Amino acid sequence: MPEITPAYRKIASTSWFSWFLPGMRNSLYVADDHLLLATQMIIFEKYHRFFFSDIEAIIAAKSNRWIWASVAWAVCVPLGMLWYLGRNNWCYVVGACWIFFAGAILIWNLLAGPTYVVKIQTAAQTRRLKAVERARRYAAFSAIVVPLIVAEQQPTRASAIVP
Amino acid sequence: MKGGAFCPLCNRLLGPEFWNSGHFLVCPACSAQVMTTAFPAITIPSGASSIVACEPGESSCFFHANNRAETICDRCGRFLCRLCSISFGKRRFCPDCIYRSRRQKSDPLLIDQAVLFDNIAIAVLALSVFTLTYLLLGLVVSLLTVCLAILGWRYQRTLVRRSRFRFGIALILGLIGAGIWIFLLLLLIPALPRYA
User: Fold this and answer.
1) Which whole number is the average pLDDT over B93-111?
2) Mutating which of B87, B88, B160, B162 best tests the A interface, going by the most A Cβ atoms within 10 A?
3) Rounded-to-integer distance, Cα A123 and Cα A102, Å
4) Which of B9, B89, B157 sits opposite A53 (nearest CB)?
5) What is the CA A56 to chain-centroid distance, rounded?
6) Residue of chain B nearest A60, judged by CA positions
7) ipTM score of the complex?
8) Nearest Cα residue in chain B from A118
């Protein structure tokens, strides 16, 4: 890369859960004039740029994904007790580990909060921002990015609209 | 794309009444609760639709002799019409420069993907173990992992900073595997029956 690479600052990334799901690992970086979405596809990392001057909208929709995930993990926790029917020390250990991990993921999911589906839209592309699909992360992301976009678009766009 | 935002769940067009309300509103199509943060760019009409014909005495586009030049390429300096001018933030390029830069990977702004050698090295090792080919080709796989880790350490160029931790893991596992295989081979070769 002969030209100087812009300095990127990481502002969000998908949780540890996405390490095990190919194509689900997304990270968001911010540079001086654009937002960079890096999507990891096992052996590739794909980049999408959203220049602050081009961003038309950021849209978030509430999703029930976290409720269904909580229900699924809540069902998994008592299922771990079936290992205790084995009446064997190894079965007890596996059962305890099962309950611990399922319970930990359930608690983590509840603490992480509600899920959204977030998309960013420009004139040329619309992309999903999986890295900010939790309520708190979306709020933090908006607090960083929205002022930058507004600052970039306000003076030039206003002068462009006025004849 | 102009004229509004779209619901992330059903892709229905959300009109100006949904923009910047500061709270969630119900999508009329799918009943999802949607919050739209719209920016001034959403109201700007597309530039490609307003191409102006070139009058005598005016500069014309390098690629379209009939179109009036509106801007110049920031890389090669060619005159460009609105159709040929592709903006990357504040910079504008012609299609030729974009094609050339992407092929040569000379401009970080135009790089759209990177190969992750560290993941390839670990994947090769993991796949061979899971498919049990490691039992047959363990030495080759281990050496391949080491080579990939060394090559990747030198040539991997990602746009964003990436930890070298995976390279270290791949290198250590590859070296341990190769060492064990070489040790086993040295142990086994003298034990093989000799047909003199």
Assistant:
1) 85
2) B160
3) 43
4) B89
5) 20
6) B35
7) 0.81
8) B8
Residue entry with tokens 């309520």: A135
Reported as a single tens digit per residue, the pLDDT across B51-97 is: 788 888 888 899 988 888 888 999 899 999 888 888 887 888 999 99
pTM of the model: 0.82
pLDDT tier, B176 (very low <50, low <70, confident <90, very high otherwise) = very high
- Is there a contact between A43 and B35 if contact means CB atoms under 8 Å apart? no
CA-based nearest residue in chain A for residue B27: A61
pLDDT at A137: 93
The DSSP output letter for B1 is -
Would you say B33 and A115 are in contact if contact means Cβ atoms under 8 Å apart?
Answer: no
Confidence class for position A102, pLDDT limits 50, 70, 90: very high
Distance between CA atoms of residues A2 and A15, nearest Å:
33
Query: Sign (positive/negative) of CA torsion B84, B86, B92, B94?
Result: negative
Q: B62: which residues sit within 8 A by CB, 6+ positions away?
A: B69, B78, B79, B80, B84, B94
